[in-house]
Amino acid sequence: xxxxxxxxxxxxxxxxxxxxxxxxxxxxxxxxxxxxxxxxxxxxxxxxxxxxxxxxxxxxxxxxxxxxxxxxxxxxxxxxxxxxxxxxxxxxxxxxxxxxxxxxxxxxxxxxxxxxxxxxxxxxxxxxxxxxxxxxxxxxxxxxxxxxxxxxxxxxxxxxxxxxxxxxxxxxxxxxxxxxxxxxxxxxxxxxxxxxxxxxxxxxxxxxxxxxxxxxxxxxxxxxxxxxxxxxxxxxxxxxxxxxxxxxxxxxxxxxxxxxxxxxxxxxxxxxxxxxxxxxxxxxxxxxxxxxxxx
Length: 295
Fold this sequence. Notes:
With about 300 residues, this protein is α+β, with helices and mostly antiparallel strands.
């Protein structure tokens, strides 16, 4: 019994499964039960291949990580244990960056980039659950500020279409630098998180608007897009509660800075502001920064 218990335990520790972020049918990258990750690439003509975490360092560790070549020209590397969560990465093939053909790509680092989702055994709040699910809609509109067509991703809660007389609060949720309006859904799974929170009664049903944080003319132009174009468009196209008390703005990193800039400059329009690792005003002064809002 002791012998078999030991063998079973070793087998569980060595188990690995394809990452959920792989393209359909791809065996690699593989996530091991002990949070190590194995990458693989077929490149027979390459002289060196390395795994590079996004930015050179993230939850995968500090790279690049050298890969070993088989006789058939298949390069492999196992790294970690790594941190759970979503991580950008790419390969360096003879020093040239390329995406992993086995991975889905996500817009990060201002380009389409490979990503790996490493699950956390203790946390599953971002996984799709057997609860009523909302929709994520792709909403195109013309911006008067930029003169161009723009795209927002809009989450509507479960039952939105059926509840034709119900109006909802709105959260404007902004992505980080180098990412796009896809980020909160594709990388962050915000829709699944909201589905579960709403189903559990921990959040009120709401509309969430995720726009591209770049307007081609700096943050000031994006603020104008939000205030002059986006909010009126969402209020026109969706059943929103349009008063200040039912409108929030939040964001990550660059988006957190934008939330502070936009929200604090328009406290007559926003009752709630969220800044996650947000970039703040330079030389912050409680008396004068953000128009003196913190006084």
